[in-house]
TrEMBL record:
Annotated source species: Streptomyces gamaensis
SUPFAM superfamilies, per database record: Glyceraldehyde-3-phosphate dehydrogenase-like, C-terminal domain, NAD(P)-binding Rossmann-fold domains
Name of the protein described by the UniProt record: Inositol 2-dehydrogenase
EC number: 1.1.1.18
Superkingdom classification of source: Bacteria
Amino acid sequence: MNHQGTLGVAVIGTGRMGADHVRRIDTVISGARVAAVVDIDAERAEKVARGIEGCTPHTDLAAAMADPAVDAVLIASPGPAHEAALLAAFERDLPVLCEKPLTPDAASALRVLRAEQALGHRRTQVGFMRRYDAGYLRLKSLLDAGTYGRTLMLHNKHRNPATPPGFTDAMLVNDSVVHEIDTTRWLLGEEITAVRVLRPVPSGNAPDGLGDPSLFLFETSAGQVVDTELFQNCGFGYQVVCEAVCERGTARTGDDHGLVVNSEGHWGGSITPGFVERFADAYDRQVQRWVDATRRGEVEGPSCWDGYAAAAVCEAGVRAQLTGDRVAVELVERPALYS
Ligand SMILES: NC(=O)C1=CN([C@@H]2O[C@H](COP(=O)(O)OP(=O)(O)OC[C@H]3O[C@@H](n4cnc5c(N)ncnc54)[C@H](O)[C@@H]3O)[C@@H](O)[C@H]2O)C=CC1
Ligand SMILES: O=C1[C@@H](O)[C@H](O)[C@@H](O)[C@H](O)[C@H]1O
């Protein structure tokens, strides 16, 4: 950190999310600056670095982490590249905010967890940003307070207008449903113990070979049941809704439509076009909280355990997609570092 205590951040991966995080650190949040960016695409790194004072573009991860101006790392490369970046950051004992998923499979997530455990202290916050969304936070407080009794079920909807090119069935789980896996574990405070996937006839708007939409069913260690409709090519906009069913009431977040207009015999509002708009405040809050905690020398938020547990559920989800069976989730014992 420089003498004013400003955190120098290296952002790894300067695509959709990475470039947005660079903008956020540069212009929205306080206490940090973008000291370096890294991308295997040199032109992209240079383009993003341009115009940011003191920001060095790199194609080499190790070189960026060795830069004395770099105090912390924000990983926004694709999931399969996260393990190498996390292990490189741990080697230098650098604090990390890692976009979800921690890694795309349980074995690599466990390797990351063990490497952090070997450091003897937490270094990682995983980018499960819904935990910073105002609506989800209100729902969590309500459920924790037990105002309506025990929570019995959650109904989730997760709809995107369209999938990017190359999206696969496994990515439906690892990139998309991973959010519901995390919110389920976080809201209920329980592990997910089994997964089933039901697949209706695919939408004619889904790319060939993609099983979209689909319905995921989770069972938890406390016997709750959670369903998630995942529809990634719904065409009409971006919607994320979570309804909790408790013993004496229900509570739902996500279906507020902002401004409602009456005109020419109709009433209605608009739907956000994508996650960048829907979760803008949550991303800002997530990164600000990471910067604030890091500057205090602390680590908070979703941990490597949360990332590993989510990866293990994802792995069961991918198997359930392929087989149509109920697949049990297997977890190692939770280390004391994450208790
Ligand atoms: N929290 C959220 O709501 C969202 C999170 N994400 C997550 O953000 C991450 C990035 O996703 P997108 O920005 O959508 O991907 P993207 O494909 O738009 O960008 C990825 C960038 O990383 C670069 N890259 C690839 N391998 C690399 C490596 N080994 N080292 C450095 N750079 C590398 C690519 O050249 C590209 O510029 C993923 O983990 C994804 O799951 C993505 C969308 C929303
Ligand atoms: O993380 C995200 C994307 O990677 C994913 O592809 C989308 O389905 C999610 O809604 C978004 O939040």
